[in-house]
Amino acid sequence: MLVNTSDGDITSLKFNGLELQDQTKFTQLSSGLGSASVTSSVANNIAVVTIKTSTITHYYIIKSGVNTLYIGTFASAEPSVGELRFIARLSKSALPNGPIQSEVNGGTAIEGTDVFMLDGQTRSKFYSSVRFIQDFVHGVTGNGVGAYMIIPGTGYETSSGVQITQNDPDIDNQGTAQQEVYFYMNSGHEQTEAFRTGFFGPYALAITDGPAPSASLDTSFFSTLNLQGYVPASQRSTVTGTYSGTLSGLAITVGFKNTAAQYWASGSGGSFTSPLMKTGTYNVTLYEGELESGTTTVTVNVGSTSSISLDSTVSRPTTLWSIGVVDGTPAGLLNADKIETMHPSDTRMSPWGPVTYTIGSSSPSSFPMAQWKGVNNPTTIEWTASSSQIGARTLRIRTTEAFQGGRPQVVINSWSSSNPPPPPDVDSRGVTRGTWRGINQLYDFAIPSGVLVTGTNTITINVISGSSGDDWLSPNFVYDSVELF
Fold this sequence. Notes:
Jelly Rolls, seven-stranded antiparallel β-sheet, Beta-galactosidase, Chain A, domain 5, mainly beta, five-stranded antiparallel β-sheet, Immunoglobulin-like
């Protein structure tokens, strides 16, 4: 490995004599630091390269005989040279094989400068996204070689957004003239909370003879290196707990966050145990699927294990009918299985409508997971009611994300609901970028007695907004579920 001593860029990465580093764009933090102080040291068969600016201390660490570049980044502020991210800009000829959905070389831009059409398919770096909670190893390969980012253990603890519902899981890869492999630490894409500062990682760039490495990377030796901001296991503790009242069949996750750190734990059989956490007081959220369903707080202290209990408070009324599962996701709805890896205009998508959905005969997979004011507005629901099912009722619409203030308004037979207030503003294009995770919202429409009739009822759901936009960039929202009770 060669590092430029004036700016900290990696200019050469060789494996078995093969140059893996692109020679026109280099591997770097953010979009390059411009200039930095670069020093190095070697002790106990461990080499440490330290790259410093006024707000960043970035470390490259190599252990003798191990084909892994260990990395840690301390940031006291967001860099002025782009989002806080590590980008390995690798040789496309040496490592040609990356995720096809993010291969954009030679494509034609169809939205902004980051969504392309190539070989009849929509492609974007955004379509390589994987949620942090699932994303511990990702990479690219060539003939007898692979380059993989590893984010082990609590490597995401300082990143922005517990990746259940908050913030978009961000870019893993982009194939241009270079092969780019990323570790996004903080991102402004679908940003729903303030960026964190501190020590990011540990993380690593592992070079193999092709197969992906294990996510269980031992970084305990970091505690011997005196890295700025690094908190060793001896200065951490865990949280154990129980939960109750959750819906059977949904994955259970417990998220912890404060302004300095974030963590998550999977629940099973009514209990959970957190990873090793830094000390402090955390807001704790119980998630059923990706829907927030209970909250508490906990304080973590060194030398003792904290214990908490969480109860689901999700409203689950007895419904006359429902479309979709109340889980904070559009799973099972039309095109939800495709939206994370392609643009909604892609020909591989099923037609978006406008859709007329008939209760009792239509499949949930025909109900659109997203609705755009300029594309598939309105969505219509036809329902044949018995005399015992009419009267004063509530139509509940849950959404997971919105763009340009898009939210639902309904017309039922000849009755029109009032307009709900705009959802919280998130500065992102959202669903066209391959994500439906934003801020979950619940809209209840109280239907007066006399509106519903015995026989056929027509429910029309409209997108309303005070903003404008064309086609796929028109105001929109993403459905979680629709219920009548």
